[in-house]
Predict the 3D structure of the following.
Amino acid sequence: MTNPLLARWDTPFGVPPFAEIDESHYEPAFEAAFEAHDKEIEAIASSADAPTFDNTVVALERAGSSLERVGAVFFNLTSTDTSEALQDIEARIMPRYANHMSSLYTNQRLFERVRQVYSQRNALAIEQDGVPGSDRRELLEELHRRFVRAGAALSDADRQQVATIDEQLASLQTRFGRNVLADTNGFELLIEEDADVSGLPGSVLEAARAAAESKGKSGYLFTISRSSITPFLQFADNRELREKIYRAYVRCADNDNDANNREVLRDIARLRARRAKIMDFGSHAEFMMDDRMARTPARVRELLDNIWRPASRRVAEEAAALQDRIRADGGNFALAPWDWQYYTEKIRSERFGLQDEQVKPFFLLEHVRDGAFEVAKRLYGVSFEAVDVPVYHPDVEAYRVVDADGTFIGIFLTDYYMRDSKRGGAWMSHFREQSNLDESIRPIVINCCNFPKASPCLLGMDEVRTLFHEFGHGLHGLLSNVTYPSQSGTNVKQDFVELPSQIMEHWAMEPEVLRGYARHHVTGKVIADEVIEKLRAAETFNQGFATTEYLAACYLDMAWHSIEEADCPTVSDLERTAMESIGLIDAVDPRYKSTYFQHIFTGDSYSAGYYSYIWAEVLDADGFEAFREKGLFDQDTALSFRRNVLEKGATEDPMVLYRRFRGRDPEVGPLLASRGLTEDQ
Ligand SMILES: [Zn+2]
């Protein structure tokens, strides 16, 4: 019997034949796909012909197509519709998969051939058939970079040392995360049934009572997990309790117990610094930046500084306003970090308070989705038509995406509802990526969210933004128009990938667009202008705080990853120096302090990379400004964004792509304006 994962898919549009696939098919299919890929790699590595761009670089692009297909089905389903059986297979397959990929990029014979092609890159006729061929140059450089970053260019001794460092880092990073979890679980604020809970809304108290009950206790249980501490700090009138829980939060994994992360994170920082030196970089930050759009730590610092100055002016004003509010309420104390959210919430609800009932009925899921489709239609002329194809779950809906001239673009799947078999969060993924190497391969893109399933399904404002955000990633995958698979769609640098998604969020909030899709789900009435006004005004509120606490964490991240191995400061020294150098006010702490800064210490990918959220925000705000200047749906601007960004994937340096769209480098002005941080606001 043939394995459906390895057979030809005679389904409409070549969608995976989900109904025919069962759990027993995955492991044999993976084994066959690994073997096929190994054979292809071996053929390239042992070729008797002199290495050329085509017989090495392009050949590697063609290799592994079976693994692509099997992996796409498996990795999508383990995220969206997993089971115990799939989890067991995942536990066995993941190490095999990681090994397979790392042995590819440390294959010395293969690297030697790549290196030879790379060394002739200037003499190489990269141009082909009159096409400039910048995608070919980029493909070669990226491939070479992958080998080099995997350690392929090192001496055997150095490579061995890097492997040892990687192993040590893996275990330290795991320990860092476990310590944060242990200390988070270790703290409990249990409030007696009849004690002071004034200010806390009923829904928050219900959740806290359930939390207590689940531990066999009575009363209300609060913890320092974000979902528990945030409403507590916003609403609890009792200032001493706010201080108590806040202090516990900022001491997470920094207590006198086994879960203290101070030395763990210093070890991580030192090992990363050592590895960077072996790789011939001045610091870990430089090493990471070599693979990002920002290119150098200096450019990141310049960006942070440019936003820091206006943000710190604004946060001082906000602090003064909160102090006034404390005095007006009869308080006789100086504003402290545990007061910030509490008094901010009071002002927020008075100024922009919108009840859920005023907003949610206007955001029926189907209307919001169609609103996103409408934006794509008006910008790019593409339309989405419901289509009947095999899907893996009844919640999944499929659309045939067609260009203005009727050309078929790809298949777009939506999987919007929460369920036990799906992981949390929202994301875009694909079952097939676009490419034009030997034939035109059309993409199958999917958007996943976790909206509570209900009929009608009414969304909150954050969920509306999420839907538009993922749809933006979806368009990046769908409108991709590249030759080589590895350059397709969203396979771009980490600090560039959020541009297409975040820019879409701007349209969601435009009054003109809202009036189109935000219609009452029963009466059909369009959302009122006063409500739109309030929604938009709330966006710039408290942004001095939000921006400085985030930037402060970015500065910490950069400081830890610029250190010398032999000269690693203590946690207290580094934090003090870093915060003094920017002048962070006492009433604000960095969004994360070192001992619980999981983004940067539980794995490499966001290390020296916490800045990338605001880097991308500079791009999306500045990019959207082009539409504001010329018109929300200006066709020339839209076409330029499509041709220069959405279609281009990773075929060129993202800064070059951006400049081609915008006609200049990105500027921070529009971001400052959208956060309300410019002088005159
Ligand atoms: Zn995103």
Summary: The chain has a mean pLDDT of 94.
